[in-house]
Write a structure and sequence with these properties.
It is a single chain. The protein is mainly β. It folds into two domains: about 1-65, Immunoglobulin-like, CATH 2.60.40; about 70-200, Immunoglobulin-like (Sandwich), CATH 2.60.40.680. Helices cover about 0% and strands about 50% of the residues. Strands 8, 10, 12, 13, 15, 16 and 17 form a seven-stranded mixed sheet that branches. About 20% of the residues are buried. Residues about 200-219 have low confidence and may be disordered. It comes from Candidatus Magnetoglobus multicellularis str. Araruama. GO terms for molecular function: carbohydrate binding. InterPro entries: Bacterial_rp_domain, CBM2/CBM3_carb-bd_dom_sf. This is Bacterial repeat domain-containing protein.
């Protein structure tokens, strides 16, 4: 069984000898900035995971990855945060209609210094009007399923991600990075950027001046 690839991505199996009549499952996984376009060779498939059944002759399959230069997710380049506050981080979608139609979006947002706790997401003022959402606050995983009645036709704000800022941030660590650990539309990885977090520490110096006077009684 000969397994090849074009473009940037990985396949779960390498070229190998398969026993007569055996099945073989192969999964194609694009690198960031690329999308999986399909399998070619002795058979053509569009699913990233395929199962070749009852292999009785030499076969060749190629996983095809193409660069996704259009559709991407973006975060603000920098956000100032205040310990103990709640913040909304906007996530924007830059979509090109020549790409595949988007039916689902799955992202994981991570921040390395535990500054932020994921609370929820708000899509009410974004570009979607018909959707379902699933938010796993422990894994910081956000999934959005787009209704069949709606198609994404342009770019704009996708959602606001709501975070609680840790109230126990201490010096000297006053900056961090919020980034996508994973980002997919349908089953394809999409490009993204990261957001710098800067702690805006507000110090309130209160000085109390007490004027103590002794009163003496003169007789």
């Amino acid at each position: 069984m000969t397994i090849n690839k074009t473009g940037e991505g990985t396949v779960s199996k390498e070229t190998q000898t398969v026993q007569y009549g055996d099945d073989l499952e192969i999964t194609a996984m694009p690198e960031n900035g690329f999308i999986f376009q399909g399998w070619s060779g002795d058979y053509s498939y569009t699913n990233s995971t395929i199962i070749l059944k009852n292999i009785i002759a030499d076969q060749s399959m190629t996983a095809n990855f193409v660069q996704n230069t259009f559709t991407k997710l973006t975060l603000p380049s920098e956000i100032k945060i205040i310990p103990g506050s709640t913040i909304n981080v906007p996530v924007y979608l830059e979509y090109n209609s020549s790409d595949n139609e988007i039916r689902g979006i799955d992202i994981i947002l991570l921040e390395k210094n535990d500054f932020l706790e994921l609370i929820d997401v708000n899509l009410s003022d974004g570009i979607l009007s018909a959707y379902e959402k699933n938010v796993n606050t422990d894994l910081k995983d956000i999934a959005v399923y787009i209704s069949n009645s709606q198609k994404i036709t342009g770019s704009g704000k996708l959602m606001d991600v709501i975070f609680k800022v840790n109230n126990k941030i201490s010096e000297p660590i006053l900056t961090s990075t919020l980034e996508f650990a994973e980002a997919f539309f349908n089953e394809d990885k999409i490009p993204y950027n990261h957001c710098k977090l800067v702690v805006n520490k507000i110090f309130s110096n209160r000085h109390c001046i007490c004027d103590r006077r002794r009163s003496s009684a003169y007789r």
